[in-house]
Structures are given as structure tokens and as C-alpha cells.
Amino acid sequence: MTVSIKTPEQIQKMRIAGRMAAETLDIVTPYVKAGVSTGELNRICHDYITNVLDAIPAPLDYNGFPKSICTSVNNVICHGIPDDERFLKEGDIINIDVTVIKDGFHGDTSKMFTIGKPSVIASRLIHVAQESMYRAIKLVKPGARLGDIGAVIQKYAEGERFSVVREYCGHGIGEVFHEEPQVLHYGKKGTGMELAPGMAFTIEPMINQGRRETRLLPDEWTVVTKDRKLSAQWEHTLVVTETGYEVLTLRDDENFSRTEAG
Ligand code: MF3
Ligand code: CO
Ligand code: CO
Description:
Blueprint: H1 8-28, H2 38-52, E1 56-57, E2 70-73, E3 76-78, E4 93-102, E5 105-114, H3 120-138, H4 146-159, E6 163-164, E7 170-172, E8 179-183, E9 200-203, E10 206-208, E11 214-216, E12 223-225, E13 231-233, E14 236-240, E15 245-247
The site of one cobalt (II) ion has 5 residues, from strand 4 and strand 5.
């Protein structure tokens, strides 16, 4: 398994792409309200990415994916396809996943939104998914292992009596959307590849309210929970630095520091 090590020049390009992906989530946020269609959210992001950022929405035509972002509502785990018939309603939860390509490099990030007042269980699921990602990011530094990341996510999420999706994982990222290594969201501490400065990858845990099993819908993209219960996901793109990590897709609304140094 060969993992590319990014040069400082490449990391600078990834900073820009990462910031643009984060900014796209910022600009779509005010539109994520009851009554909007996921197709409309797709158009807003697409137009911003192409017209304002002069960037490329990576999902569009990626392995045949038909839209520019993924919108995953309620029991949809990931890769939900935006459409003009799906209108958000009070109580829904939705993940919006944005990936942009700028100057040849990818930035990939997603966040959860709640429509109106979420149920207690939905809020808790969303919080646990985000916290699991943050706990994993904090472990990233040279010499740490990929298994440390999976283990902390699994331990925390299962300790909260939720489950971790196995079939989909984080990934190396750079000039290629999905490259090595695979970043599993479960596993054993002290196992797996050792991290080194210049590695760039995503951490994007999918946490289910009920059982971890997944089902692929006939559209061959939409992944749902087999038990039809809720799923939540958050994603950041990060790079391993000499001393720890740098989150390339951090947003201003997050109470988390961009690097391990604060
Ligand atoms: N953004 C997703 C990820 O985090 C991948 C979406 S691929 C698509 O890796 F084709 F569904 F858009
Ligand atoms: Co990703
Ligand atoms: Co993504």
C-alpha cells in the first residue's frame, strides 16, 4: 500500500480547496429549512462552487453520480441524491456533503443540519457522531496508527449505544478524490498504518441510531440503514503535520482548533 506524501506546495493548494468546501457549507446553511427541496440545495451549492469559487463540484459525474453534492436525510447513511421532489420537513435531519476541486486538489467535508426542533435521540446521535470525529482528529500525529482512529470512534459511539457503519470509510485525498489509505471508523488501537507528515485523508464516521447494517437502494447510490432508523455523519479533510494535524475544512461555527497546537 502506497500513501502519497504531499509537499508544502500541494498542502497549500489543499488548504484552499478545503476552505472552499467549508465555505460552501456556510453559504448553503441559511437555505436548509423546512420546505426546501434537496434539489434546490444542490443548485445553490453547484452555482456557488462553479460561479463564485471557479471550482469543480467533484461528485458530479464521479462514477456516474448525477448531482454536485450528496444530501442524506434521516435513515439515509450517505450518498443521497438531491432531487426536486424531496422537501425537507420539520424534524428531519440531513447531512450535506460537499467536495470541491480547485487547482487540481480536493477538499471534502460534510455536516449535519436539523430542520426545526429535532427529537432528543436525533440530537444525541448528531452530537455523538461529531464528537467521535473530533476525538479521532485529536489523535492524529506522526507515529499514531490508523487503528487508533477507528478504535476511538468505535469505542465512544458504541459506548453511547449507537453503532458504526463498516462498509464505507474515510480515505486518502489530494489530486485524487479517493486514494489510499482507507480510514476505517472501527478497529483496534496500535494496529494499521503509521501516520507520517504530509499524509492527507478524511475522517467521516457514519453513526447509526440502531443496527450498523446498510442497504443500497436500486438507484445504486443511496445507502440506507437496514432497520430504517436514523444515521448521522460528519466529515473533515486533514493533513498530518510534523507535530500533529491541521484540519483543512474547519468552519467558523466549530468549537475546535485547526491544529493540535490550538
Ligand atoms: N463526498 C463523499 C465522501 O466523503 C463521496 C461522494 S461520492 C459521490 O467520500 F459520488 F457519491 F458523490
Ligand atoms: Co470523503
Ligand atoms: Co464527503
